[in-house]
């Protein structure tokens, strides 16, 4: 199976079949498992054990899965409260998918009241010294966009438009003069990648961790404020005060905003067959992207 076919056929049903095989490999039961999220990975919580299983879309993600496990150990060593990988040899390959296993965090995911804490966590993360043997230079934030577009079950017209937009934004990124020094970056720094348990925040999801521009991380929450309207102005100001820099005041933000809009839309478009609600939201986001300006709130998935 090609990478393109893997992307286009990956969904909740196929992921559940991979989950059953993966659990058999480690001696656990998949019975009653709950699908927590379907995006770049299918994420399941097992009912029979305090384990979360992450199933990546294809074997081209093997190095990312391997890095995730190593990064979780490194972050713990650096005093960053982070998700812990289960103490078993991993990742494992199951039917063309890298699979990793994680200790279940008995708490809640981040919400609107936690955006200030996200700013504080990113400030600590960005201040760490990056070990060269763990990860290298971050890849372009547009890395997976082309693959998502190619494999998504949407119209050829939408694919053509999004591909051309990705090319233009790639050129714009190359010409964008960043103002902050490169550092360790999370790569997918939204508030739902924080969990909260026992009065502390716990950082999760490390497949995009690398060494790159902190503006990339900051632009996620900024775009959620400016375009998606996930945050009030007060929420966003809490984030800025906690981190210490307002990326929306930087002239290069408009490029990163459009990149984030594209990423958020192409992430969603992979799953348009999962529900009418996702299909409707994809169409709404396409209308905003085609107009080239924020217009009303987006629905989070």
From TrEMBL:
Highest taxon listed in the record's lineage: Bacteria
Pfam family, one: APH
Matching Gene3D superfamilies: 3.90.1200.10
Ranges for domain Aminoglycoside phosphotransferase: 49-248
Name of the featured protein: Aminoglycoside phosphotransferase family protein
């Amino acid at each position: 199976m090609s990478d393109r076919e893997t992307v286009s056929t990956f969904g909740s049903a196929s992921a559940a079949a991979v989950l059953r095989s993966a659990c058999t490999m480690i001696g656990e039961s998949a019975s009653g498992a709950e699908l927590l999220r379907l995006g770049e990975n299918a994420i399941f919580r097992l009912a029979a054990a305090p384990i979360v299983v992450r199933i990546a879309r294809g074997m081209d993600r093997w190095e990312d899965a391997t890095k995730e496990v190593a990064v979780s150990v490194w972050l713990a060593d650096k005093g960053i409260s982070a998700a812990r990988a289960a103490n078993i040899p991993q990742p494992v390959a199951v039917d063309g998918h890298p699979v990793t296993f994680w200790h279940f965090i008995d708490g809640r995911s981040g919400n609107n009241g936690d955006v200030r804490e996200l700013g504080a966590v990113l400030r600590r993360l960005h201040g760490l010294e990056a070990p060269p043997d763990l990860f290298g230079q971050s890849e372009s934030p547009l890395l997976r966009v082309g693959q998502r577009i190619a494999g998504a079950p949407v119209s050829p017209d939408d694919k053509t438009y999004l591909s051309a937009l990705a090319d233009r934004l790639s050129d714009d990124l190359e010409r964008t003069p960043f103002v902050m020094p490169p550092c360790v970056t999370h790569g997918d720094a939204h508030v739902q990648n924080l969990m909260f348990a026992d009065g502390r925040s716990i950082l999760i999801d490390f497949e995009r961790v690398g060494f790159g521009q902190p503006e990339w991380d900051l632009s996620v929450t900024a775009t959620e404020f400016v375009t998606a309207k996930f945050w009030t102005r007060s929420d966003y100001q809490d984030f800025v005060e906690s981190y210490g820099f307002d990326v929306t005041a930087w002239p290069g933000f408009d490029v990163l905003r459009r990149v984030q809009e594209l990423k958020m839309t192409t992430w969603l478009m992979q799953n348009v067959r999962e529900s009418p609600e996702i299909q409707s939201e994809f169409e709404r986001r396409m209308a905003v992207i085609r107009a080239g300006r924020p217009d009303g709130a987006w629905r989070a998935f």
